[in-house]
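Hi F.,

I've been meaning to write this up properly since the lab meeting, where we talked about keeping a consistent format for the predictions we share between groups. The idea is simple: the sequence comes first, exactly as it goes in, then the structure tokens exactly as they come out, then a line or two of notes. No screenshots and no reformatting. I'm using this chain as the first example so we have something concrete to point to.
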Amino acid sequence: MKTLEEMLALRQPLVVIYHDLCMDGFTAAYVAQRRLGKDAILLPHAYGSVISGLPKGRCSIFMLDVSFARGLMDQVALDHDLVVLDHHKSAQAALEGAVPLSAKVRMNLSPEIIIGIDEVGRGCVFGPLAVCGIANPLGWTDARVRDSKEIKSEKRKNDICADACKNTIWSLAVAHNTAIDQYGITAALTQAMIRVLDDLVTRVGQAIQGTTTRLRIIGDGNDMYPIIARYECVVAGGGFVTVQFLPKADSTFFEVSAASIVAKASRDLWCHDIVKANPTLAVYGIDGNKGYASSEHTHALVQHGLTGWHRKTFCATLLATHAIKMAAARAASAA
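Output, unedited:
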């Protein structure tokens, strides 16, 4: 763990996360601000909450009288410089022997780290396309992980998603229906992949800086040349990045399979939540078909029209094709 002087010497934003609604937390925050100065950012948080309010970029974080789930703490330790001071016995038990994820990565470095990336929802007529990338520097394995299309149980999919997020370095991005309509599916997908890979390459790169470890990006499907051109290069320290797009990678590479599952579980949850918040969407069967063009969904589009979450370009093609089929069926029955 870095000393206070070492943390200050980094000249990064200073953030104090302290226990909200607690005298010990308030006192710790007061003392920290007196020592760190008025530029220190104070963020009150409760146990069980999600960390929020952090400025962009790498920060020096002092977590005082409060801590979080082990997986979240590992992720914060990778993305930032972190000091934790928490006297609660439950936290001490949870964090006993904890090693920051960045340190674990260095301790377990292999010659190559794979970043698997995959998308879900490309062929939908409703909602966003989701892209997930997963780096697996600690060699996490799980026999349940396979292509998300092969996993039918929602609970199992969500359980695997939760475990993947705890044990890997991951990133998620979406391309909304409006972006897909404006730019086209390929451009929207490419931009979402870039957001994910920029994030992962930066974060994993910080953990392996100065080593000769290689990063290997593997995606499912055909070559995406903008991605290959952007990331395939020699990097500082003598390492390098290679990019491959391979058919069936989501069923043959563990990291790609895991990314597929996280993307699928995240997008399915979005579909469930959007219907819950907007009950009128129930007529389209979104909670069941997840935005794909099922017969129920197509019939509802004919009867009720498009919503603000539908992809106009995709729906235009779907409805034109449906109209041709209906006309052909009527002609056949009249003959």
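Notes:
Strands lie at 14-19, 41-45, 60-64, 81-85, 112-120, 129-135, 169-175, 214-220, 233-234, 240-246.
Residues 279-334 form one domain.

If this format works for you, I'll send the rest the same way.

G.
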